[in-house]
Amino acid sequence: MAHPIAAQLKVLAFDVFGTVVDWYGSVTREVEALRLGVDAGAFVSEWRAGYYASMARVRKGELAWARIDDLHRAELDRLLDKFGAARLDEAARQQLNLAWHRLDPWPDTVTGLSRLKSRFTICTLSNGNLGLLANMAKRAGLPWDLILSAEVFGAFKPDPKAYLGVADVFSLKPEETMLVATHKADLRGALRCGLATAYVERPLEEGPGVQREESRDPAFTLHATHFNDLADQLGCP
Amino acid sequence: MAHPIAAQLKVLAFDVFGTVVDWYGSVTREVEALRLGVDAGAFVSEWRAGYYASMARVRKGELAWARIDDLHRAELDRLLDKFGAARLDEAARQQLNLAWHRLDPWPDTVTGLSRLKSRFTICTLSNGNLGLLANMAKRAGLPWDLILSAEVFGAFKPDPKAYLGVADVFSLKPEETMLVATHKADLRGALRCGLATAYVERPLEEGPGVQREESRDPAFTLHATHFNDLADQLGCP
To answer: In the predicted model, what is the mean pLDDT of residues A3-12?
Structure first.
């Protein structure tokens, strides 16, 4: 029995980092493999935090518009210094920065997306850049109907331009579009723009050492434990 | 034996209307089904010509930037008047305008693209808007790694911004990217930007009554009779 929201939805837009793919596990494995003598988990957590901080500076106008690839790279150089691994050469830095293009999906991601795609149009709505998202999808077999990015709208989430941009691309009303994410701030941004919202639990997003707060928030339309649960709730075969 | 260009290529960018899908046949069938009493082939040929003329006016700055959906719609209203079919109501006009989202692929399109995708990243580079291209791909099963459009670059082909934009999205050099198209003006635009080029024959693009000039032009890197021929030339399994 599908949730009544299913009848009005046309497009599901997915946050990507954390929601669709496991950035912590994937990048940590790449850092460990380099044997830099750093605490790989701490390094990656700080890299991710630096990305959020850089985006916030872009949104405030303190930094010029930049792709996530470039923000990741600036943070990487800073962290290699800080963690005492500045000996890593340029070619290796370029390779490591592309670890964010090689993120592994969660176990339920591909089957869940394929089920959701059978009933809805599924797209990304990520702050990641288009090239990163396309490379990731090709490697991981993510069956997107369309890859949308902050790069298309010139605005990082939670800027309303990003959420309203998805509906506009498909000539839909906001309420015909649902944001799917494991980040409540992202979902609140979508909610303010009139989109439907689905929270998905990703208890391991920040690594096994971090207890995430995954409680149900009645403000969001749906709460799912994983993508196959979401597909069940939306009546997908 | 693959052509030597295959070794340097990473991304194949495809023109869509005419190259990937049969706009003449697909839209003509929809116009005929409406029994408007018009010469459907002539109507569709003029609709397509009007789209080119509207884009040219946008490129010259005579018209504000607009999506192809909107340019198609303005032309449709003009042509319904001209062909004496102005009785078509608003809902039917909206439906007919979306015929451009429902274009059928050529017989070799899906198998050829799937083979090319096994070795290269395949994307669109179309003047069509993102929503149109996504709806078309979902319906026709076009296995794009990424959908790129004039809408992303704010510039219609043959503006250099569109061709260079593809390389830039993937952080590649122009010569690592190839434009595949059945339109020589489009390929010349890509050539001027340093992209590799492949002409694909589509003798029926403008309908069975129009003899297209499909001669080999030595300025282009490759000349293929269809997508499977292109896959053969590029060494795809």
So the answer is: 97
Average pLDDT, chain A: 96
Q: State how far residue A123 is from chain B, nearest Cα, in angstroms.
A: 9
3-state secondary structure of B182: coil
CB contact under 8 A, B131 and A171: yes
pLDDT digits (tens, 9 = 90+) for A21-52: 999 999 999 999 999 999 999 999 999 999 99
Report the C-alpha gap between A69 and B174 in whole angstroms: 19
Interface of A with B in 10-39 (CB under 8 A): none
Residue A94 neighbours by CB under 8 Å, 6+ apart: none
| B173 touches A at CB < 8 Å | no
> Could you tell me if residue B224 is left (phi over 0), alpha (psi between -120 and 50 degrees) or otherwise beta?
beta
Q: What is the pTM of this model?
A: 0.96
| pLDDT of residue A7 exceeding 90 | yes
The verdict on B147 touching A (C-beta cutoff 8 Å) is yes
Domains and CATH numbers, chain A: 4-20+106-233 (3.40.50.1000), 24-101 (1.10.150.240)
| Residue B147 structure tokens | 């959908």
Contact between chains at B171 and A69 (C-beta distance less than 8 A):
yes
User: A77-123 pLDDT, tens per residue?
Assistant: 999 999 999 999 999 999 999 999 999 999 999 999 999 999 999 99
SS3 A156: coil
Q: Please report the ipTM that was assigned to this predicted complex.
A: 0.96
Beta strand extents in A29-71 (DSSP E only): none
Distance CA A184, CA A181 (A): 8
Indicate the residue of A134, A148, A152 with minimum beta-carbon distance to B121.
Answer: A134
pLDDT confidence of residue B181: 98
SS3 state of residue B210: coil
Pairwise CB contact (< 8 Å): B134 & A123:
yes
Locate the chain B residue with the closest alpha carbon to A118: B138
Residue A99 zone, left/alpha/beta (φ > 0; ψ -120 to 50; rest):
alpha
Q: Which of B144, B151, B153, B176 to mutate to test the interface with A (most CBs of A within 10 A)?
A: B144
pLDDT for A1 equals 81
Rounded to an integer, what distance in angstroms lies between the CA atom of residue A5 and that of residue A198? 11
B134:A152 CB<8 A:
no
Residues of chain B with pLDDT under 70: none
Q: Which 3 state secondary structure label does DSSP give A20?
A: coil
Query: What is the SS3 assignment for A105?
Result: strand
Q: Which residue has the tokens 């990305």?
A: A51
Q: Identify the pLDDT of residue B1.
A: 81
